[in-house]
Amino acid sequence: MKLNALLKTLGFLALAATPVVAGPSAPVKNPIAPAPVNDDLGITASLGYDTNYVWRGLNIGSHWVRAGLNGSVLLVGGAAEDGAGSTALNWDVQYGSLAGDQDHLFAGGFGNASFQRVQLGAALSHDFGPASVNLGYRYYRNMGVLGGLGGMNDGQEVSLGFATALGPINLSSSGNYDFVNNYWYFDLNASSTIAVTDAISIVPYATLGYGHNMNWQFAKNTGVSTTWNRNNVSNWTAVTTGIQLPIKLNSRATLTPYIAVNIPMSGVNNLPIAATSHTAYNTVLFGGVTLSVRF
Question: Can you give the pTM of this predicted structure?
Answer without folding.
Answer: 0.84
